[in-house]
Design brief:
Length: 161
């Protein structure tokens, strides 16, 4: 009788470990690495990111350091409208792991938020306030919106790749 109980307990432990490993694998982020200019899909949206230079802001918005500007070309590959916002984009450098995008109304192309129609590419820009160094490597991290229901995350090298 004790042996049957021991077999049941060991079986339950093995089954629970199998379930835990399966659930862990299901909810791991899918990291996608690319270089600037290469299309990369994060959920239902295909992005092409390019480095668009640096600037010192405008009369209303001045950076603490230098604005690093990127161009974002995005196309919704799904059949439903999906949301894109500047908060999805983060700049990563060696000194600080996360710089958030800054909206300053620098041009008509400055991204705040957009709803992407299926199959219609759009082009926006956004910028990050960083102590820019021409020798340093900068990467853009793209996270999906909650609406997109994906675990994909892209890291795109934009300088000194």
């Amino acid at each position: 009788m004790a042996r049957i109980g021991l077999v049941i307990v060991i079986g339950a432990i093995i089954v629970s470990m199998g379930i835990a490993v399966y659930m862990y694998a299901q909810f791991q982020p899918n990291l996608i690495f690319a270089n600037y200019g290469e299309p990369v899909s994060v959920g239902p949206v295909q992005y092409t990111i390019t480095f668009d230079g640096t600037h010192e802001g405008n009369k209303e918005t001045k950076p603490e350091n230098t604005f690093v500007k990127i161009r974002i070309v995005a196309e919704n590959l799904s059949q439903e409208t999906t949301r894109m916002s500047g908060g999805q984009f983060h700049l990563i450098d060696d000194n600080r792991p996360d710089h958030e995008a800054i909206y300053g109304g620098f041009s008509q192309e400055d991204l705040i938020e957009d709803y992407l129609e299926p199959g219609k590419p759009v082009s926006w820009t956004t910028q990050f306030d960083v102590p820019y160094d021409e020798e340093e490597q900068y990467k853009i991290l793209i996270r999906p919106t909650k609406q997109q229901k994906t675990l994909d995350t892209a890291i795109i090298c934009i300088t000194n790749c």
